[in-house]
Design a protein that fits this description.
The complex is a heterotetramer, with two copies of chain A (375 residues) and two copies of chain B (359 residues). Chain A has helices at residues 3-9, 36-61, 75-83, 98-103, 108-112, 140-153, 173-185, 204-207, 232-247, 282-288, 292-302, 308-330, 338-341, 349-365; strands at 90-92, 161-166, 189-195, 198-199, 202-203, 223-228, 257-262. Chain A is α/β, with parallel strands linked by helices and 375 residues long. Chain A folds into two domains: 3-331, Rossmann fold (3-Layer(aba) Sandwich); 336-374, no CATH class. In chain A, a hairpin with a 2-residue loop joins β4 and β5. In chain A, α3 runs parallel beside α9 and α6 runs parallel beside α7. The longest helix of chain A is centred in the first third of the chain and has 26 residues, at 36-61. The two termini of chain A are 42 Å apart. By secondary structure, chain B is α/β, with parallel strands linked by helices. Chain B folds into two domains: 4-219, Thiamin diphosphate (ThDP)-binding fold, Pyr/PP domains (Rossmann fold); 231-357, Rossmann fold. Helix content of chain B is 40%, strand content 18%. Chain B has helices at residues 2-27, 40-54, 78-82, 94-107, 125-132, 135-138, 168-172, 185-197, 248-260, 278-288, 303-315, 339-342, 346-358; strands at residues 35-38, 58-62, 87-89, 110-114, 148-153, 178-180, 202-207, 216-219, 231-234, 239-243, 265-269, 272-274, 291-298, 324-328. In chain B, α9 crosses α13. Chain B starts with a helix and ends with a helix. The chains are: A alpha/beta (375), B alpha/beta (359). Chains A and C meet through α13 and α14 of A and α1, α4, α12 and α13 of C. The structure holds thiamine diphosphate (2 copies) and magnesium ion (2 copies). One magnesium ion (MG) binds at residues 166-168, 196, 198-199 of chain D.
């Protein structure tokens, strides 16, 4: 058990919480101002995320998807942060933020496409303000900062940028440089650190001696908030506040915020990872009792918003959507010309030659000749 | 020494008259133009000024580019004219500067980032090679990062360690980046203007050795030079000498001196290092049958290797001698007491050319 | 598919028997040795284990190298054996890892740093090119940074974006760094052992495509292979094909298939990319008069360019055809649906070799 | 006037101070336990530093030295930090830390050699534990951390590493990564941030929104101290404490410390810089009244340790030493073979060929043929 999770286990007051583990509203907590329809939509997104995760893992095991980074346990925070955005806001996700991307407008098919090997899933459809997933850790942070700065410079007061990253990412230089710029240029950005307590096999207390990740914001003169990342309503509230402040800070307030969303990585780092090698799963039980999906479900059931019937409808709808997306993703086809087409705006002579060379080889030998085993 | 420098200047200007002007006329009619006599660094500042006046999206950011006008004054006067929102002193953090620029570009701005010296670009290397270069292909052509990263490069100015880097090959090897470098004030303005307007990320290398070496007439209004075309600075029949940036002038000096020995060099200033102007290289080589490349960077795996490899690939049957690489040695630039022994200069260029011609 | 893979294996092993063993015998007498059948990645772990057992100064550091044994298990069992002071999970920060390693080396330790994938080395690029590479020359030979930076490189394993980088040329262009890559388990252990003992900084590139592709007998005790010598994996008379790391096996497969067409390839596994084993390259080329280079990295300004440039420099009179560069295209590695079309494989190698032979 | 300097002007209690501007011991302050001889030696080092600076600037103006980074106003802190080291400790300096290097053992000739273009000045003589100056900003920080870590791993309990950097350096990723590692591995290192309030033309309040630089240490769970960098005794005390703690931390104490030494860059960034372009010199007067050399001189005079006669002796001795060093540095000669000799332990074939090529060219044309004007 590490320092952070034991702090966490005390359900202490050092972070924003609204629901208790069973979905009851905590004393003194105020539920964010969301309509029944909104709450149900959010819940449906959670159910979708959970079932998408399960399906993706299973597809990966069948060899139908490449390495996948599961989000079970973290989807509550993902969904809530994206719900807190306005449509015109931009999202910078990591490889784990599937649900965050989807809620902000990315189709399920797009999520699956790169896992099938197609860049098409990284295209940014018109009107969808979601960047492709960032794989090199923390590199998105200065970029998200830059985009937010650009909106401010262009007087687009109604736009904020939300940037996701993990606990491990806080150790990279890019985290530091990005947040420092954010403070200096007072940019409308919300930095969400998804502290799932592990960076692959490295627990967060080996990542830094800092007591919290939130306190790192002080080094940049920006505000921070710690929130229970397994409590979707709390995450929504914290993020919504940060987004509002980014766009319209009060007197003496800065625009940027660092949100430390305390979570736990329920499963493996990715489908290639075996956590039993490096972590005893003492903590899992504790977190599973606070499962974000069950927790919101508890709340909605308590409030009479969610019935068994509705639950069934949601599950059916969600499964259908996932099924359709899987079929779409599996019917995608790649065009080898794509290798060359988008390197530059215009194809330079050498790339043109190379495209031609490949075309000729394909013509001569057929595409199947390319699927030799290399090793 | 100064008379030597004058010779250099005259030679270069003579050569320039013959060839650059051909180039200029195609793109730009001088007759109706107001012209200023500018140095290369002034032409850089002028390009920025002219473009910023016409396009509000353009901003300049970097270390000390604001009130100070850049450590070489390449952003002089911009701060006073355009204010601290468009001419921005950043914190001292190169990954931050380039990462921010990518984000700014994505937001609709047209950032021109300055890296104070090429030797300090490495902290930003990841942002450049993992992101700026890939955004277009990653998004299947749907997004892009139109940004310019300017940096003074090269040696010869008696600078401290790390201030004389010339590692253009690093950027040339990375797909998705364009790499250009001017060797004259006229080109500096035209290429930088084109770089700013280009939809792809451009690494703009400024030969600081010749920042103030000479003046040249530069139109006051804006004009673009193509980002992928070499300029033939001197026509010749015996050998093609390929070079760029700050090595162009010593190469031209060597060419004039070799002419007196009866060796007629064609001097090709590549200007664009990525994409390489392959056709011009090959055409020139096919005409002369002999070649040399002059660059400051270490020889091994430098851009000279690519040029030699390309020529033997495309024009082996014309090749009468090994293509000589007259380059920095495979060592780090020494501190300045030995700098002259490290950098190629007319002496070594002539020697290399003779080796190729006498082969 | 599996029968093809078997063919590959047989071919490679056949080729290996002929040539690698020659090499091995010179350096190492097998007869008295205990041997294990190891994969390449196991040989890496074995080299670390063996060296760490003998030299207390050696430590391993990086992301997930400890209890997890590395994401590829290249540091398997080390943590249990040597404990968390010598097998250290670091924070997620590559500049920190390499910077720390330089300092550790200066303090008297012998750090072996792991970068999880070559695509993630760029944040550490500055520490490598501005410091690790220069410490010796900067201090006038008085100090040095004996460290090893291991990283898996290359494609072909259906990995996500950034996980298939092959940018060895970046390191080859920087003076002061050594760059080596093994293509067999035996070489992996011998080269890594030598790298650890070497007084200069060594970039050790591990071809992850063949981490587990085949097993080979590897002595249990420690042995060194020279860091600057190529291995001739197949002797031949018609053409010299230069390659390294993960491209060695497809090149050998292509060579066997070409043999059936009557083309007799000499396959040279460079092993050392910096310094380049120039004499072996040139000798082989002078024998065959034709050449090709096979690498995964983008063609332009890749190590293939250096090899071609060197050959035409040193052996032009022997050159009967252009040296073919069979390389990654000048584009980023696509996502895995198109990976097979990007990477050179026997098909393209054969085609390139035929072009050179039929020229 | 920026936020930091105005705070500074209050001579407030947020930093360690021992001497007042005139060299009187402040009420409640305790003078560090230094003998008269030690105090005098420290003072002599200060005088040396000040006069070395003046001489170097003048030599540069005469074209006899390359670009030089002056230290006037900052030498008090430099000398004091090095005095606080034990001989076996290591020093990582920047291009500005001439006095720090000298006090820890580097000869004056070595300081001048690189400014004349000779790498010989970067060699590390046996027994002198001073790294060559670091020019790429902040890059020394992870390295200093690594060396300290190495000493700890090797059980060399009596060794610490002291690492200098500027205020600007705190914005670089390397600062962040180095300090974070220092916290995690609890290394015996002292990080001295010489906050001279300017990074070339950029004032420290444009560098970061953080109120102090010292507080950045919280992000790494390491301790920090702010000290009046114009007060040599205060700097000595802060550093000495940090060095002791690095080697022998008390219970609950961590080894590493971040010291923010508040200074002011009296002059130009380097001899190539013209500060009148970007900074009004309002602040100069204030700081000159707190000049570290005068301040220690005031203290020593008050205490009767320093007499006019002694002052004269010191000045004479110091000038002689500088003169000798200048002469030595000016008589150095470079061997072009050096370009090749130290790239690797052994000369590879291609470098050998290149050395040979250069030798032949020199033989054929003479060395003077190489000093053509390139531009
Ligand atoms: C720059 C870089 N270094 C290393 C990696 C390999 N890697 C992928 S995920 C990961 C751990 C990330 O941990 P964290 O930031 O906590 O995010 P999480 O995966 O827990 O969501 C590492 C080391 C990488 N992708 N990028
Ligand atoms: C990585 C890097 N970027 C830029 C520079 C150019 N440069 C030299 S000194 C300097 C300012 C440094 O300021 P600070 O850290 O406060 O130190 P000071 O010079 O004030 O002592 C800059 C930007 C450099 N040397 N290294
Ligand atoms: Mg994590
Ligand atoms: Mg400063």
């Amino acid at each position: 058990m590490n320092a952070h999770s034991s702090v966490y286990e005390q359900d202490s007051n050092d972070r924003l919480q609204i629901l208790d583990p069973d979905g009851n509203v905590r004393p003194d907590a105020e539920v964010p101002d969301l309509s029944e329809a909104e709450l149900l939509a959010m819940y449906e997104a959670l159910v979708l995320a959970r079932r998408f995760d399960r399906r993706a893992i299973s597809l990966q095991r069948q060899g139908r998807l490449a390495t996948y980074a599961p989000m079970t346990g973290q989807e509550g925070s993902q969904v809530a942060t994206s719900y807190a955005l306005d449509e015109q806001d931009w999202l910078f996700p990591t490889y784990r933020d599937h649900a965050a991307k989807h809620v902000h407008g990315m189709s399920l098919t797009s999520l699956l496409a790169p896992l099938r090997g197609y860049r098409e899933g990284y295209a940014i459809p018109d009107g969808v303000n979601v960047m492709p997933e960032y794989i090199p850790i923390a590199t998105q942070i200065p970029q998200a900062m830059g985009m937010a700065w650009g909106f401010k410079l262009q007087g687009q007061q109604d736009r904020a940028v939300l940037c996701h990253f993990g606990d491990g990412a806080t150790s990279e230089g890019d985290f530091h440089e990005g947040l420092n710029f954010a403070g200096v240029f007072d940019v409308p950005a919300v930095f969400v650190c998804n502290n799932n307590q592990w960076a692959i096999s490295t627990p967060v207390e080996r990542q830094t001696q800092s007591e919290t990740l939130a306190q790192k914001a002080d080094a940049y003169g920006i505000e921070s908030v710690r929130v229970d990342g397994l409590d979707p309503l709390a995450v929504y509230q914290a993020t919504r506040g940060a987004v509002r402040k980014a766009k319209d800070p009060g007197p003496g307030e800065g625009r940027p915020t660092l949100i430390e969303s305390l979570q736990y990585r329920f499963g493996a780092h990715t489908t290639s990872d075996d956590p039993t090698v490096y972590r005893p799963d003492d903590a899992a039980e504790y977190y599973r009792e606070r499962d974000p999906v069950d927790r919101l479900r508890g709340y909605l059931t308590n409030e009479g918003i969610l019935t068994d019937e509705r639950q069934a409808t949601i599950e059916k709808r969600v499964d259908d959507r996932i099924q359709t997306a899987v079929e779409e993703a599996e019917s995608l086809e790649a065009d080898p010309d794509d290798i060359f087409e988008h390197v530059y705006d215009e194809l330079p002579r050498r790339l043109e030659d190379q495209r031609e060379e490949l075309r000729e080889l394909r013509e001569k030998y057929g595409d199947s000749a390319f699927s030799e085993v290399l090793e | 020494m100064s008379s030597y420098a004058d010779t250099v200047r005259e030679n270069v200007e003579a050569a320039g008259d013959e060839t650059v002007s051909v180039n200029q006329q195609e793109l730009h009619d001088h007759s109706a133009e107001t012209l200023s006599e500018l140095t290369l660094v002034e032409a850089v500042a002028d390009a920025l000024y002219t473009e910023m006046s016409q396009d509000e999206r353009i901003m300049v950011l970097g270390e000390d580019v604001g009130r100070n006008g850049g450590v070489f004054r390449a952003t002089d006067a911009l701060y006073d004219e355009f204010g601290d929102h468009r001419v921005v002193d950043t914190p001292l953090a190169e990954a931050g500067i380039v990462g921010a620029s990518i984000g700014l570009a994505l937001s609709g701005m047209r950032p021109v980032a300055e890296i104070q010296f090429m030797g300090f670009v490495y902290p930003a290397f990841d942002q450049l090679v993992s992101h700026a270069s890939r955004l277009r292909s990653r998004t299947h052509g749907q997004s892009n990062a139109p940004l310019v990263v300017r940096m003074p490069y090269g040696g010869g100015i008696r600078a401290p360690e790390h201030h004389s880097e010339s590692k253009e090959a690093f950027f040339v090897h990375e797909p998705g980046l364009k790499v250009v470098t001017p060797s004259t004030p006229y080109d500096a303005k035209g290429l930088l203007t084109a770089a700013i307007r280009d939809p792809d990320p451009v690494i703009f290398l400024e030969p600081k050795l010749i920042y103030r070496a000479f003046r040249e007439e530069v139109p006051e209004s804006s004009y673009e030079l193509p980002l992928d075309e070499a300029a033939i600075r001197r026509e010749g029949t015996d050998i093609s000498v390929f070079t760029w940036g700050s090595m162009t002038r010593p190469t031209l000096v060597a060419a004039e001196e070799l002419a007196e020995e009866g060796i007629d060099c064609e001097v090709v200033d590549l200007r664009s290092l990525s994409p390489l102007p392959i056709d011009t290289i090959v055409d020139s080589f096919e005409k002369t049958g002999r070649g040399a490349v002059v660059h400051e960077a270490p020889k091994t795996a430098g851009v000279g290797a690519e040029i030699a490899a390309t020529i033997q690939e495309e024009a082996l049957l014309y090749q009468e001698a090994p293509i000589q690489r007259i380059a920095g040695y495979d060592a780090h630039m020494p501190l300045h007491a030995l700098e002259d022994f490290y950098l190629p200069q007319a002496l070594r260029i002539k020697e290399g050319v003779r080796d190729a011609v006498e082969f």
